Recover the amino acids of this structure.
């Protein structure tokens, strides 16, 4: 699992595993930030952690760091890579190492409101609903094939914070559901079931 933030999706997935709703295990948690809350949650759960070395760019990883990331995942025998608030765009070298095996969750009903702070984009556009989407990661940002979505209505008086909180509640349910479906059906792209 890869994450850059406080780890709320990680915690929800871990709870789904503990309750038996998700038949999976988390081999390693990797972050691009040494102070990320997801790392502390992983350590508390006795899950190995790795912090990527700092690169020159804020929004993406240099090819050599992507290769180090792929090597770490191979070392822990990771089959499916789950992005949980990982704030870096992954490019060719990493995606070539894990073709069709990288999932992401995005806080909008894609293809609407790609990119950063999608809940703010939805409010600014006057949308009546938004939600979250689980999709395969490909070379374009937030454009890979969609595996599942959950709608969240935009309520009168919503603030960016209140809307984002409700979207995250939906994410916490949807992500585990989709991961379970991917595992059960062996939906890895390009990999025979």
């Amino acid at each position: 699992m890869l994450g850059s933030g406080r780890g709320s999706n990680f915690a929800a997935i871990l709870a789904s595993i503990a309750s038996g709703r998700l038949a999976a295990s988390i081999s390693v948690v990797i972050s691009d930030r040494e102070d990320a809350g997801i790392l502390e949650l992983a350590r508390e759960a006795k899950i190995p952690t790795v912090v990527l070395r700092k690169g020159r760019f804020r929004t993406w990883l240099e090819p050599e760091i992507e290769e180090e990331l792929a090597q770490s995942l191979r070392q822990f025998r990771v089959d499916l890579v789950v992005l949980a608030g990982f704030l870096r765009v992954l490019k060719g070298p990493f995606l070539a190492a894990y073709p069709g095996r990288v999932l992401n969750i995005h806080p909008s009903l894609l293809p609407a409101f790609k990119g950063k702070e999608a809940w703010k984009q939805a409010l600014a556009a006057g949308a009546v609903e938004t939600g979250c989407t689980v999709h395969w990661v490909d070379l374009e940002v937030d454009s890979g094939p969609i595996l599942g979505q959950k709608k969240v209505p935009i309520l009168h008086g919503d603030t960016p914070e209140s809307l984002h909180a409700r979207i995250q509640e939906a994410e916490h349910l949807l992500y585990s559901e989709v991961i379970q479906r991917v595992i059960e059906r062996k939906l890895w792209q390009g990999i025979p079931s």
